């Protein structure tokens, strides 16, 4: 029993590491830019589709994965352009691009599913025994590069665009450009995650991106709730850990014989819990402080009345 549980947890950690890039992409759009981008469900599959097709045509795994990243960047850039130049609501722009990408992904793949079991992948460069040694280092390096980018002048403009676009425009920053750049980078990371997941699982499927936005949100919210998000380094580290914890929770649920059909429900419940529990805790804390303040005022009032009564009696 413990061996099977350990193997399930090991596989979940491995998969969670590959989903970290997707969660970081969602963090950029939702947290930094305050842009509810549903392109994610489509761009995740785009990265998988592009890399799978290139692998089957004999391209190197590294080039195939990087091409998936570029394809995701292109999809995100179009979403940003639809919103900034086409003046389409950000949520609607993401939905439109997500719908369009379903057909585009089918066109890229030529069929709903591409097996990769006989293809060389990025994971063929090292033994599976070294997965948990090499992949975390690579993912952490990408996280550090993202941290460094967010502290550059362009990165600071990106963060300011999400916080207060009117203020940053007054300093002469083109917020349309920063939004397009941010959404492009976000979907590029999501697509790279899709490319890596497809190579890890051994296939690319046109439906594999369904629900990715919820998984990404769950990773971001869980990480922030547990580890906090005051600084950029802390926030991205929280997202990294949140993606792994999410996969561990799913593995635990499956280990105790929950139906795989219920995974979306479990994910939704995790997100609901992660969103509501901190609010409930804050409400209880405020109520407790109010009661303590009321009790203190009552005690001070009673003490003052007692002193006044003593003076009167004297």
UniProtKB/TrEMBL annotation:
Question: What organism does this protein naturally occur in?
Answer: Marinicrinis sediminis
Indicate whether DNA damage appears among the record's keywords: no
Q: What is this protein called?
A: ABC transporter permease
Q: What is its main location?
A: membrane
How the protein sits in the membrane?
Multi-pass membrane protein
Transmembrane segment boundaries: 12-33, 62-82, 91-110, 130-158, 179-200, 206-228, 235-254, 266-285
Q: Where in the cell is it found?
A: Cell membrane
Question: Per its UniProt record, what InterPro entries does this chain match?
Answer: ABC_transp_permease
């Amino acid at each position: 029993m413990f061996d099977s549980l350990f193997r399930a947890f090991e596989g979940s950690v491995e998969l969670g590491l590959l989903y970290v890039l997707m969660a970081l992409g969602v963090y950029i759009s939702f947290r930094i830019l305050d842009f509810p981008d549903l392109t994610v469900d489509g761009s995740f599959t785009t990265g998988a589709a592009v890399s799978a097709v290139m692998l089957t045509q004999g391209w190197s795994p590294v080039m195939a994965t990087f091409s998936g990243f570029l394809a995701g960047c292109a999809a995100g850039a179009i979403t940003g352009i639809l919103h900034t130049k086409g003046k389409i609501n950000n949520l609607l722009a993401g939905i439109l691009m997500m719908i369009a990408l379903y057909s585009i992904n089918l066109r890229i793949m030529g069929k709903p599913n591409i097996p990769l079991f006989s293809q060389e992948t990025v994971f063929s460069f090292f033994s599976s025994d070294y997965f948990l040694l090499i992949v975390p280092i690579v993912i952490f390096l990408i996280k550090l590069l993202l941290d460094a980018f967010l502290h550059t002048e362009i990165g600071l403009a990106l963060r300011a665009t999400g916080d207060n676009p009117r203020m940053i425009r007054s300093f002469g920053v083109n917020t349309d450009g920063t939004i397009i750049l941010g959404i492009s980078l976000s979907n590029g990371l999501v697509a790279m995650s899709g490319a890596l997941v497809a190579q890890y699982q051994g296939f690319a499927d046109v439906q594999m991106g369904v629900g990715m936005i919820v998984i990404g949100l769950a990773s971001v919210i869980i990480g922030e709730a547990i580890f906090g998000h005051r600084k950029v380094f802390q926030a991205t580290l929280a997202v990294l850990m949140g993606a792994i914890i999410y996969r561990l929770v799913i593995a635990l649920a499956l280990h105790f014989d929950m139906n795989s059909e219920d995974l979306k429900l479990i994910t939704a419940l995790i997100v609901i819990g992660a969103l509501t529990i901190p609010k409930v805790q804050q409400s209880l804390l405020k109520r407790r402080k109010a009661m303590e303040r009321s009790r203190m005022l009552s005690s001070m009032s009673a003490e003052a009345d007692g002193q006044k009564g003593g003076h009167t009696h004297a």
